[in-house]
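Async update (no meeting this week)

Hi team, since we skipped the sync, here's where things stand on the single-chain job. The sequence we agreed to prioritize is pasted below, unchanged from the tracker. I ran it this morning and attached the output directly underneath so nobody has to dig for it. Comments welcome in thread, and please keep replies under the output.
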Amino acid sequence: MKIKKELILVNLISLIIFVLILIEVLSNGLLVNLDLFLNSWNVTKNIFLVDISKIIDLVFDSWSIIIISLFLSIFLCFKYSKKEGAFFSLVILLNAALIYLIKEIVQRARPQNALIPGSNFAFPSGHTATAVAFFGLLIYLILRKAKSKKIKVASIWISILIVLLIGFTRLYLNLHWLTDVLGGLALGIFILTCCIILKNILIEVKN
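Output:
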């Protein structure tokens, strides 16, 4: 299985974007001013959307995704192979570990007007990064296993919409700054593509 150049390109671009956003956050650059502007923008919150956002916050919490991923990994071990199951769980666990590490290093405070309390630091958005890794893995598996083109296309669009919805709810609940969500998106894509590239390299070496 040859590593596609497009995958390597996406990996490099996501890393560059994440690093640039990180520099902006650490240096209080122009994007931070945009963060403050958007957060201070007084918009009347819809009660229904707030409730939906809270549910999404709970369902797609990093710990929830980790638990779901472990069960899914067990399923993959029995359905396909132990390697597939191990790969899925390792990516999610690596993603969670890196998010925690970066949060602890950056230690960026969350917005003070958050509608629900956050459990740790703001940058990057753990919900967003974890969603990218989780649904990205699902797309990766479906593209490799599914035979129907309609299923493949539908899985891609549904996954993208869910990830974007999760990112939106982080902002709607004022739990994160815009750069937290963008940084989470970039980090999730970088981790996902890194793991897929490394897996393909190992496969090529063994063959």
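Quick observations from my side:
The chain has one domain: 5-35+58-206.
The chain has a mean pLDDT of 89.
Reply here if anything looks off.
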